[in-house]
Amino acid sequence: MPVICAANPKGGAGKSTTILALASTLAEQGGSVTIIDADPNKPISDWRSGASRLPIKVLSNATEANIRDLINTAAAEAQFVFVDLEGTASRLASRAIIRADLTLIPLAGSALDAKQAARAVNLVRESEEDIGRKLNFTLAFNRTNPPPFTRRIEREITEQMLSNDLPVLKTHLYRREAYNAMFMERLSLFELDASQVNGLEPAIDNAIQLTAEVLELLKRNAGERAA
Questions:
Q1: pTM for the complete prediction?
Q2: What is the mean pLDDT of residues 180-197?
Q3: Is the C or the N end of the chain the one with fewer CB within 10 Å?
Q4: Torsion angle defined by CA atoms of residues 157, 158, 164 and 168, in that order, rounded to the nearest 10 degrees
Q5: Residues sharing a CB contact under 8 Å with residue 123, sequence separation 6 or more, in sequence order
Q6: pLDDT of residue 170
Q7: In the prediction, which pLDDT does 227 show?
Q8: Mind telling me which PANTHER family this protein's record contains (predicted)?
């Protein structure tokens, strides 16, 4: 079953938000989901301590020594496995990236985030050299403005990434109050109260679109490996 990890050495890059939006959407659609919370701050574990009804299993005992076994065991039991990595480049992160079917590199539309995302790309490239094969990854923008309010810096960073032949998801996880509310209320997007969270429906639609694109990318990558 596919393993998806989120990596970026910059703290606050949106790794946990991206993972939770994807995982909760898949669980809401009936998929079995496990998240390995390897972030020392444990944001996903804190979310799981809330009242969400979604059957998302969260493992918070990841270490450098056990991360591969943890991923393999989770992948044998769940349809989808997500790994929320710590905000530093480490051996634990490298081992998770090597095992993953897809590495998401979340970034916001800022020059600092773009610089740190480049470091994450380098980590993937170094991992490729270590094992002698290509690894699948893509940049995943979050906290950007939806059209027609896209900022020029966001467009320029996207164009720069594409000009450097870096894969970029077309769907951004836009700046929405609902994504913060997930962690505040410890609920999924689908359990939040629309009367209390501004723009909840657009946030749900956005998460569904992002999930569909990630699933299509996984399918395409699997087809390329089989060819």
A1: 0.93
A2: 96
A3: C
A4: 140
A5: 7, 9, 89, 93, 94, 97
A6: 94
A7: 58
A8: COBQ_COBB_MIND_PARA NUCLEOTIDE BINDING DOMAIN-CONTAINING PROTEIN, P-LOOP CONTAINING NUCLEOSIDE TRIPHOSPHATE HYDROLASE
